[in-house]
Design a protein that fits this description.
Elements: E1 4-8, E2 14-15, E3 33-37, E4 71-74, H1 77-82, E5 87-95, E6 100-101, H2 108-118, E7 126-130, H3 134-146, E8 150-155, E9 163-164, E10 172-177, H4 183-193, E11 199-201, H5 208-214, H6 216-225, E12 231-235, H7 240-255, E13 264-270, H8 275-281, H9 292-300, H10 320-327, E14 330-334, H11 336-350, H12 356-370, E15 380-387, H13 389-396, E16 399-400, E17 405-407, H14 413-423
Parallel strand pairs: 5-15, 7-8, 7-11, 8-10, 10-17, 12-13, 12-15, 13-14
Antiparallel strand pairs: 1-2, 1-3, 4-5, 5-6, 9-16
Helix pairs in contact: 2-3, 2-5, 5-7, 6-7, 11-12
């Protein structure tokens, strides 16, 4: 449906998206690939539903039913409270009065509707998604409603995030790594399954559709504001959303109608789990050593567990380190207490609940304003990555989904493959 080519951030090689390409075919280094769209200037397609109004800059071959889209508005109450005259909130979640209808309450729906629209119906294989929670919930909804075979790998401790209006379609299966495990363990489980021909990896940050789906937050903001913002605030676990923002920003520079500046990427992590912050502040392109037992203990103490990624796309060419460096950005921190204060402030001033990860971003913005790091008249984009979930739960009373299988950490790979195959017979 959309005309595009793929290009390697490492060597500049261009190639066609023939069969779920995730890497440069030259295999000449750890680098992301990105989409180069035939249409240099974005046309917002109001004739297409939901997120697909941005189809010009999405690597898709079809559209799917049920998508929402990010909604950007100029904040009056919160902006006034912070003393910012040009604060824009890009809201991802459920807030009907604002036109926000993401029924899983998170911008992970942007990823899911883009990624699933990149799949081809005739493929016949099962897509595998590893997630700390929100991504899995979003993909489950999209695949369940559109009959796309899907295997989810999620830590058992994060099952609270696995809810839906009704039981998922039988084409969606959920397997977990046992209590005490984390997101990295689920990634390992998904990698084992993807050794089987019947399954293929969604790809995470390597998937151009995932990043460009996330990038629709910036498409929403820029087309609403009429210019590229000066600052971009978001909480990160992998940093994929921030990379996506940088890529979308560069497309708008090439578009030529919205300015030529690069937004300063101001990304934040939730104390005590801060591997991206630690590497960035050490001036290191490589992630620093991280003890896995300590990491699991830190994740257990986070309020925003969706921000727990031990292997983010930070070091690779075109990854988060490059994005932060290119934009003059920074990595910030917020405690659970600061996030809770930000949550309360947002619901009081703006009128809707937000998720802990979004509150981490707001808490970091509040700290930057307090320290004078953001000019009062700067155009600021605050990416509220999830919100309205508490309201949605009250109105629709969704049901918790249960795993089909639970595997201990270190489970025998052959047993994992055998039992997962049985799920799809």
């Amino acid at each position: 449906m959309t005309s595009y080519q793929l290009e390697s951030a490492c060597c500049g090689a261009t190639f066609e998206d023939k069969r779920w390409e995730l890497d440069c075919p030259r295999k000449d280094g750890a680098a992301l690939i990105f989409a180069k769209y035939a249409k240099r200037q974005l046309e917002v397609r109001n004739d297409l539903p939901g997120i697909y109004k941005y189809a010009d800059w999405l690597p898709i071959c079809r559209t799917l039913e049920g998508s929402g889209a990010p909604v950007t508005y100029k904040s009056e109450a919160l902006g006034k409270h912070l003393g910012l005259t040009n604060l824009y909130v890009t809201f991802n979640g459920y807030w009907p009065e604002k036109g926000a209808f993401m029924k899983t309450g998170t911008f992970k729906e942007c990823e899911a509707y883009a990624v699933c629209a990149r799949t081809r119906e005739e493929d016949g294989r099962v897509m595998v998604v590893a997630s700390a929670g929100n991504t899995a919930r979003a993909f489950a909804r999209v695949c369940s409603e559109n009959h796309i075979p899907l295997l989810l790998c999620v830590p058992e401790d994060n099952l609270d995030a696995m809810w839906a209006d009704k039981p998922w379609n039988d084409c969606v299966k959920l397997v977990c790594t046992a209590a005490g495990s984390d997101y990295f363990d689920s990634i390992h489980l998904s990698n084992i399954v993807c050794e089987l021909d019947k399954f293929f990896p969604e790809g995470g940050a390597k998937n151009v559709a995932r990043r460009d789906g996330m990038g629709t937050t910036v498409l929403s903001a820029v087309t609403e504001i009429g210019r590229i913002p000066d600052y971009y605030f978001q909480a990160v676990g992998s940093g994929t959303g921030a990379i996506a923002a940088w890529e979308a920003n560069r497309r708008f520079v090439a578009d030529g109608r919205f300015g030529s500046n690069l937004m300063k990427l101001m990304v934040s992590q939730n104390v005590p789990f801060t591997p991206i912050y630690d590497a960035w502040k050490a001036g290191s392109r490589e992630m620093l050593p991280l003890d896995e037992h300590m990491a699991r203990e830190q994740v257990a103490r986070m309020c925003a567990k969706v921000l727990s990624n031990r292997k983010p796309p930070y070091s690779m060419t075109g990854g988060l380190f490059d994005a932060l460096t290119a934009t003059g950005g920074d990595v910030l921190l917020a405690t659970n207490e600061q996030a809770a204060e930000a949550q309360e402030l947002f619901v009081r001033l703006e009128g809707v609940d937000i998720e802990p990860a979004a509150a981490v971003a707001l808490a970091s913005l509040m700290q930057c304003v307090k320290e004078g790091r953001v000019e009062k008249d700067a155009v600021v984009m605050l990416n509220i990555t999830g919100g309205g979930i508490a309201r949605y739960r009250r109105e629709f009373n969704p049901v918790r989904q249960h795993p089909d299988l639970v595997f201990p950490v270190g489970a025998d790979p052959e047993e994992v493959k055998s039992r997962v195959l049985e799920l799809f017979k």
